[in-house]
TrEMBL record, chain A:
Residues 219-238 are annotated as: Disordered. The chain crosses the membrane at residues 6-27, 34-54, 60-84, 96-121, 133-150, 157-177, 183-203. It is found in: Cell membrane. Keywords: Cell membrane, Membrane, Transmembrane, Transmembrane helix. It comes from Falsiroseomonas frigidaquae. It is a multi-pass membrane protein. The keyword Nucleotidyltransferase does not apply. This is Hydrogenase-4 component E. InterPro entries: HyfE-like. Its main location: membrane.
From TrEMBL, chain B:
It is found in: Cell membrane; Membrane. The lineage of its organism: Bacteria, Pseudomonadati, Pseudomonadota, Alphaproteobacteria, Acetobacterales. Keywords: Cell membrane, Membrane, Oxidoreductase, Transmembrane, Transmembrane helix. It holds the Pfam family Proton_antipo_M. The chain crosses the membrane at residues 6-24, 31-51, 63-87, 99-116, 122-141, 153-175, 202-227, 239-261, 273-290, 311-328, 364-389, 401-421, 452-474. It comes from Falsiroseomonas frigidaquae. It is a multi-pass membrane protein. Residues 117-408 form the NADH:quinone oxidoreductase/Mrp antiporter transmembrane domain. This is Hydrogenase 4 subunit F. The keyword NAD does not apply.
Length: 238, 482
């Protein structure tokens, strides 16, 4: 299967769309925008999984698609939106790395992953797998960039979630990958736990702010003088 | 029976976790049930030593995981005993007590599965479950410091295991033309059989992702940032299993990947990469040890140092030294964490300056802790002395320049630990401020000193009086890891 056949083109289009949304995630200035872009990315991922399931004749991938759609396009964005509303937050994303530099870095990372993956896999796998892998690695690296470049806890979590979208994209694109459904489900459980964790912790009074910088004051040894109120050793009792 | 033993040993703790989650946390029952489940698991784990090598579907029993599974069983039991005596002082409410005990058993089951799995996908899932369970335990107190530690742990290890999954996918991609579709594509045995004909480029790329991914979980520098926080802020007993077991499972995952990639002559050589990570861990930790004021953070950093030493040993191909070091570190470090945990309960603080003169005020505890710290510093008669000696000899034979940097690291770390030993155990005792509820079980402090001395004794056996069959087992492991 090569360029020009419908199966290849559609798989490629969906993969490219997912990568494009990784860029969209990076240039959003408002959290609502970030969450919306993530929801669309989740929907595209579900479509890509379903398409691969049809092309590879692998019914298990439909399960992956269904789970991805339910969790990433609906459940997680909904939970995060409710969280924002509950906390009364309509905030900007607080970039640690500016929008412009992030996009430049992102372009460089895409170039890097294409240069790494395509030559390495040259002799072997079929064209679709190779290019899918390059796209997936780009999505992974962009997710990581988002985690580094944003100070806000919700943006960091979305960075990790989109990183995981890249992983699923890689897994569904490799023909005959064993345990693909199990692995993608397990990864999804991890992500859901993460989202549940952030929802629970942010709704508590202790963390009324979303800026993870605030947390650093509570970190063990760094601020010896400021710890008395936050720090409670097991030894000291409540 | 032996065919199903690997699964029984995984699902027994998980069944225990369900029971503990359902059980009303009344009085001492959860702690005792936890102890009972851990005792049975420990017996099963020791029985794994008698199972002949072989693959059973998704799991395998071989010389690499047999000793480590037995070790995990022993340390799990010792930790459950320590936990039973100290959990009351943690002042958990009903929900937290359930979550703590259930997560402990969930973690133990996942730990066994991670060690026993033959299928690399199953291994990944097991390490992920272990991560989730340990995040839950670290966060269980809900204080800002605990949440900060758990958040950092979750994010960094989340990235780590995500990258490891990418590496796993690449590994299958490399083997796909040779092993075809379906489960064998991720089986360690099958991958090793075809590793020589695999595409070297994809294998190298896969190894880089696997070593960075699982290396994060093994606490190798520069991916270690979560470890000191997680080990200092979680409940006292859990530190022993986090440090003694979780790191081992992650390093074994790296070694399994290394054993596959190392077979292919065209792929990147995995050894030097591991030596590099190991050396960075050793040197950074040996400096960081000098600046710790919090006792649990001090020993968390010492875990980074020892994982670095093991990584160097495996990277150089001195697999016997590496296996001995992994096991010795788990035993001695758990013993030290029991001692420090008990001391923190007695003195009401885990700062080094608040704990002093333990040997004078509580001889059994103080001298046990002193011996343990001396063992971590690499002094005889513990197995860490033997493995470090073997490591230095191997390094001198292969890469003489390495000896200098390893020597500097060992010396710096050793002296820092001896200084901590003097501060914690010798000198005039500091005033006691016991935490209410600690060591109220009959037997009192023996619930901490007993397990600690038992683990120290095992570590001595491991170093100087190994039975012949165990030496043979470690020799097989050395050959398997290639």
């Amino acid at each position: 299967m090569t360029f020009g056949s419908t199966g290849y083109d559609i798989a490629h289009l969906l993969g490219g769309g997912i990568l494009l949304l990784s860029f969209v995630l990076l240039y959003q200035r408002r959290l609502e925008g970030v969450i919306g872009a993530f929801a669309i990315q989740g929907g595209l991922l579900a479509a890509a999984a379903a398409w691969q399931g049809w092309m590879q004749d692998e019914p298990g991938l439909y399960v992956t698609a269904l789970l991805a759609f339910g969790a990433k396009a609906l459940l997680i964005p909904l939970a995060l939106r409710l969280l924002l509303r509950r906390l009364g937050l309509h905030r900007t994303v607080e970039p640690a790395l500016g929008i412009g530099p992030s996009l430049l870095a992102a372009s460089a990372l895409v170039g890097l992953s294409v240069m790494v993956v395509l030559p390495v896999t040259a002799g072997q796998a079929q064209a679709l797998t190779r290019e899918n892998l390059a796209l997936a690695l780009s999505v992974v690296l962009l997710g990581m960039l988002m985690m580094i470049g944003r100070r806000n806890a919700i943006s960091q979590v979305i960075g990790l979630l989109s990183l995981e979208n890249g992983l699923i994209l890689a897994a569904i694109g490799v023909r005959g990958m064993p345990l693909v459904v199990e692995l993608s489900t397990a990864a999804l459980v991890l992500m859901l736990a993460l989202v549940a964790g952030i929802v629970v912790f942010l709704l508590r009074d202790q963390l009324a702010t979303l800026d993870t910088d605030v947390l650093h004051g509570h970190q063990g040894e760094r601020h010896q003088g400021e710890r008395h109120q936050g720090e409670r050793h097991q030894g000291e009792g409540p | 029976m032996t065919l199903h033993l690997p699964w029984i040993i995984v699902f027994l703790p998980w069944a225990g976790a369900l029971l503990l989650a359902a059980l009303a946390p009344r009085g001492r029952w959860p702690a005792l049930v936890n102890l009972g489940v851990s005792g049975v698991s420990c017996g099963l784990a020791l029985a794994v030593l008698a199972v002949p090598e072989g693959v059973q579907g998704w799991t395998r029993v071989d010389a690499v995981n047999q000793p480590l599974v037995a070790l995990a069983g022993i340390i799990g039991l010792a930790t459950a005993a320590f936990s039973a005596a100290t959990v009351e002082a943690e002042r958990f409410d009903g929900l937290r007590a359930r979550a703590y005990h259930a997560a402990f058993q969930l973690f133990m089951g996942a730990q066994f599965l991670a060690l026993l799995s033959d299928n690399l996908g199953v291994m990944w899932v097991a390490i992920e479950i272990a991560t989730l369970a340990s995040v839950l335990i670290v966060a269980v107190h809900g204080t800002p410091a605990a949440i900060e530690a758990a958040w950092k742990f979750f994010l960094l290890c989340g990235i780590g295991i995500a990258l490891a999954l990418f590496g796993t996918i690449l590994l299958y991609l490399a083997a796909q033309p040779l092993v075809g579709q379906g489960d064998p594509g991720l089986s360690w045995g099958a991958l090793r059989a075809v590793a020589q004909q695999c595409d070297p480029g994809i294998l190298s790329l896969a190894f880089i992702f696997l070593v960075v991914g699982y290396g994060t979980k093994a606490g190798l520098v520069p991916l270690h940032a979560w470890l000191p926080d997680a080990e200092a802020e979680g409940p006292l007993p859990i530190t022993a299993v986090l440090s003694g077991l979780l790191l081992n499972a992650a390093l074994v995952a790296v070694l399994r990947a290394k054993a596959i990639v190392g077979l292919n002559p065209g792929a990147l050589e995995p050894g030097p990469l591991l030596v590099g990570f190991g050396l960075a861990s050793l040197l950074l930790a040996s400096l960081a040890l000098w600046r710790r004021r919090d006792a649990r953070r001090l020993f968390a950093w010492s875990s980074i140092e020892h994982m670095g030493l093991s990584a160097i040993a495996f990277g150089l191909g001195a697999n016997l030294a590496g296996m001995l070091h992994l096991m010795g570190h788990s035993l001695v470090k758990s013993a030290v964490f029991f001692g420090i945990g008990a001391a923190a309960q007695i003195k009401g603080s885990q700062k080094i300056s608040d704990i002093g003169g333990l040997a004078a005020s509580h001889p059994a505890l103080g001298w046990g802790l002193a011996l343990g710290i001396a063992g971590l510093a690499g002094l005889p008669p513990f197995s860490l002395f033997v493995s470090e000696f073997r490591l230095v000899v191997a390094a001198a034979a292969m890469q003489p320049w390495l000896v200098l940097s390893i020597g500097i690291g060992l010396l710096l770390a050793g002296t820092a630990l001896v200084r901590a030993l003097q501060a914690l155990c010798l000198g005039p005792p500091t005033p006691d401020a016991p935490v209410p509820g600690a060591f109220t079980l009959p037997g009192g402090l023996w619930w901490a000193t007993g397990p600690a001395w038992a683990l120290l004794a095992l570590s001595m056996l491991l170093g100087f009086a190994l039975p012949a069959w165990f030496t043979a087992l470690l020799g097989d492991a050395t050959r398997l890891l290639g």
